[in-house]
Design a protein that fits this description.
alpha/beta; six-stranded mixed beta sheet; six-stranded parallel beta sheet; 38% helix; binds 2'-monophosphoadenosine-5'-diphosphate; Shikimate dehydrogenase (NADP(+)); NADP; shikimate 3-dehydrogenase (NADP+) activity; amino-acid biosynthesis
Length: 276
């Protein structure tokens, strides 16, 4: 089978390593390759790429929205989120999906199986594309007490407005508000790029007053141990690393392409070593 990734730049991507393993474990013969498409000639590049007839591919920055007009169909979740990271090809018909949110939820469920998503209070830090996917997936799994804190309050308010239902208790707040009310939350999810190299020491909010037993998650995986997670660990929190979501969203993409759900457990441990 032929799989791949489109984006720009993508030479640093871990996806080939992850998917090559899934291909081998599933007993298939195939390859997952990188296709760096140029932004200036995106239309022509996509047309030429389509000729290659890949069975499926992932989409990363800066094309998660730009790919949408080239699809024949779009899955409902991806449509609501407004971004596609996975495309399946069936006889030349391209269907777009977004596996980030569900990948996040599956990785949380795997690491914290006793956590009852219907009962917990969740704080999401950031209101960009990644936050949108995660908030949508959490709500689909029954989370209805959720706050979104963002540097730009309006963006958080817009996200709440888009996803709010009659049953949910959702609120938008500033990062300062989040620090003040931190003790109310059972799960805190850091979805911004703060903490990524090179500004590795940055930390989006301080974690004083964290609730006992709270889970703190950071979707950044390079570095694996962000300043935010280091602080969380010091304060006694249970930790959820970004590479866990990375592997689970890839596993879900592989499942969409093949119908086979890989077991991410082994790979997560290996990736941890690789990134440490
Ligand atoms: P992604 O698709 O990866 O989520 P994005 O859509 O550009 O990326 O969203 C970036 C998120 O990170 C936003 O919530 C952004 O806050 P603003 O809406 O205020 O821009 C947040 N963010 C980025 N850099 C930040 C920083 N230095 N401090 C706080 N928040 C930051």
């Amino acid at each position: 089978m032929k799989l791949g990734l489109i984006g720009y730049p993508i030479s640093h991507s871990l996806s080939p390593w992850i998917h090559q393993r899934f291909i081998e474990e599933s007993g298939r013969i195939g390859a997952y390759e990188l296709y760096e498409l140029e932004l200036q000639h995106f239309s022509d590049e996509v047309a030429a790429f389509k000729e290659l007839g890949l069975d499926g591919f992932n989409v990363t920055v800066p094309y998660k929205q730009k790919i949408i007009p080239y699809l024949d169909r779009i899955d409902r979740e991806a449509e609501i989120i407004g971004a596609v990271n996975t495309v399946k090809n069936e006889n030349g018909c391209w269907t777009g999906y977004n596996t980030d949110g569900k990948g996040f939820v599956r990785s949380i469920r795997a690491s914290f199986p006793t956590m009852d998503l219907k009962r917990i209070r969740v704080l999401v830090l950031g209101a960009g594309g990644a936050a949108k996917g995660i908030v949508h997936a959490l709500m689909s799994e029954g989370v209805d007490r959720l706050a979104i804190a963002n540097r730009t309050l309006q963006t958080a308010s817009d996200l709440i407005e888009a996803f709010h239902t009659n049953h949910s208790q959702m609120k938008a707040m500033t990062l300062a508000d989040a620090e003040q009310t931190l003790g109310e939350y059972d799960l805190i999810v850091q979805t911004t790029s703060v903490g990524m190299k090179p500004a590795v020491d940055d930390q989006i909010i301080s974690l004083n007053g964290l609730k006992k037993g709270a889970v703190v998650s950071d979707i950044v995986y390079q570095p694996l141990q962000t300043a935010f997670l280091t602080d969380a660990r010091t304060k006694g929190a249970r930790i959820h690393h970004g590479h866990e979501m990375l592997v689970y969203q890839a596993a879900y993409a592989f499942e969409i392409w093949t119908g086979v759900r890989p077991d991410p457990g082994l790979l997560i441990n290996e990736l941890k070593v690789k990134l440490s």
